[in-house]
């Protein structure tokens, strides 16, 4: 494969993508404090172009239409959420009954379903059970060594040392690895124990029917209510369950964690790890002994919390990313995670002086491209952003389907005066569809479909890059001035 999909570092990292929490957001208005805003509104407002206004309107409209809370009644949503939550409480409780060492003291609710950022359907829930018996009496978190690989050094990783005599011999054997007279918790061992107990618990749940270990990545089968399966591997740092819920088939990430030392600036921390190989780091310990800090309750300020208009943009970008995946014929299209999109937005927010969120949309496109020329974009080169909680951590943005679709929307919305196609699209996406359905629907020769056919071309071009056997298609789309000269172009090319 060419460098577009090349690995970014020598080894497979545990990306913090779906692990770090999103928060319940306070009522903030505008992208920056209101004092500055008043001045800027009078000063800059006249400079807002029609292109920017159209993008801003699109963001307002799309974020409302995509927000799961505007698509289901509160009663239906709450019934669905209770079903998922109650079953997870029971599951985690059973695990603790089978082995009290692995009991959890709390099941933290995390992720988009709890932070008001879920789009389309309530089909993803995230929980962090906190293991009760790995606490300050039994374990101690130490910073990783200076000799660690760059991926771990100074990026908020730690070893979890087991205090002498704190665990029974049986639990020491099961959960730790021994290095130079110290015992450190090993996630491969600990999680293999947890996996056995999760499966045993699922087999004995009264309210659920366990249908086995499945490959969740390569299927999107719909489950009957109460059917539940577990993914064959880890999902980042989490166990990945899939359950038939009252409203839809729902994915659940269960990220078992251990209380860590609080960070001075970021507050309380949990340690998480989803390593599945036992290879060794330069420091001499296996990767499975390098635990990652995850912030659970960071300070509420503009550095860590999105403003209201940036929240709208977040939902809009998630909608586009979702749509690109739905239209793709690949089973595993190149999709930016919600966490990465949020980090790009938070990074943007730190310097945002926009009066209209349309300008923010343009800046986000700038940030996920390498091109400086916003009017003639080329999509091929990998780019990265930083985690705002741990700035030394790098998040890669080389996700072609999402990046190409986001760029296409920016051009299409800003350079098209007639917005009939947007309303048509929002109507069509009220229900989920297969790529085949989209092909058929868009082959109808009506005016509003013409724009959406271009989007389909963008997605298919990215599909063609996914496997070498299908060849590498190229695509160039152009938008024109009234006199017919080229105003903007988007080139998709595999290099
Ligand atoms: Zn190391
Ligand atoms: Zn902004």
From TrEMBL:
It comes from the Eukaryota. Belongs to the mab-21 family. This is Uncharacterized protein.
């Amino acid at each position: 494969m060419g460098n577009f999909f090349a690995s970014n570092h020598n080894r497979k990292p545990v990306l913090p993508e779906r692990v770090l929490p999103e928060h319940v957001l306070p009522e903030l208005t505008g992208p920056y404090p209101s004092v500055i805003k008043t001045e800027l509104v009078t000063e800059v407002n006249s400079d807002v172009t029609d292109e920017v206004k159209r993008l801003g309107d699109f963001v307002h409209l799309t974020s409302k239409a995509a927000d799961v809370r505007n698509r289901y009644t509160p009663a239906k949503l709450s019934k669905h959420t209770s079903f998922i939550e109650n079953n997870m409480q029971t599951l985690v409780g059973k695990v603790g009954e089978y082995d009290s060492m692995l009991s959890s003291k709390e099941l933290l609710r995390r992720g988009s379903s709890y932070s008001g950022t879920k789009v389309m359907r309530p089909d993803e829930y995230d929980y962090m059970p906190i293991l009760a018996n790995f606490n300050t009496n039994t374990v101690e978190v130490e910073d990783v060594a200076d000799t660690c690989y760059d991926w771990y050094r100074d990026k908020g990783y730690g070893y979890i040392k087991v205090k002498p005599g704190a665990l029974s011999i049986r639990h020491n054997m099961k959960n730790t690895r021994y290095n130079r007279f110290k015992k450190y918790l090993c996630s491969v061992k600990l999680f293999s124990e947890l996996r056995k107990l999760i499966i045993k618990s699922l087999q004995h749940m009264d309210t659920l029917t366990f249908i086995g270990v499945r490959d969740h990545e390569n299927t999107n089968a719909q489950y009957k209510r109460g059917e539940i399966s577990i993914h064959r591997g880890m999902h980042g740092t989490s166990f990945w369950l899939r359950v038939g819920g009252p409203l839809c088939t729902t994915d659940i990430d269960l990220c078992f964690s251990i209380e860590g030392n609080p960070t001075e600036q970021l507050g309380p921390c949990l340690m998480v790890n989803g390593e599945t190989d036992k290879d060794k780091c330069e420091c001499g310990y296996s990767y499975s002994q390098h635990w990652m800090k995850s912030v659970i309750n960071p300070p509420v300020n503009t550095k860590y919390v999105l403003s209201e208009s940036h929240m709208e943009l977040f939902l809009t970008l998630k909608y586009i990313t979702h749509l690109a995946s739905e239209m793709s014929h690949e089973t595993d299209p190149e999709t930016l995670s919600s966490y990465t999109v949020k980090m790009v937005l938070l990074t943007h927010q730190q310097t945002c002086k926009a009066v209209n969120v349309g300008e923010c949309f343009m800046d986000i496109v700038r940030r996920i491209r390498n091109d400086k020329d916003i009017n003639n974009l080329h999509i091929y080169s990998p780019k990265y952003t930083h985690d705002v909680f741990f700035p030394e951590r790098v998040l890669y943005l080389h996700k072609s389907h999402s990046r190409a679709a986001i760029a296409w929307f920016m051009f299409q919305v800003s350079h098209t005066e007639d917005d009939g196609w947007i309303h048509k699209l929002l109507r069509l996406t009220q229900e989920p569809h297969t790529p085949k359905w989209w092909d058929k629907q868009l082959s109808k020769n009506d005016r509003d479909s013409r724009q959406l056919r271009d989007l389909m071309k963008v997605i298919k071009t990215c599909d063609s890059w996914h496997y070498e056997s299908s060849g590498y298609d190229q695509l160039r789309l152009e938008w024109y001035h009234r006199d017919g000269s080229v105003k903007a172009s988007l080139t998709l090319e595999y290099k």
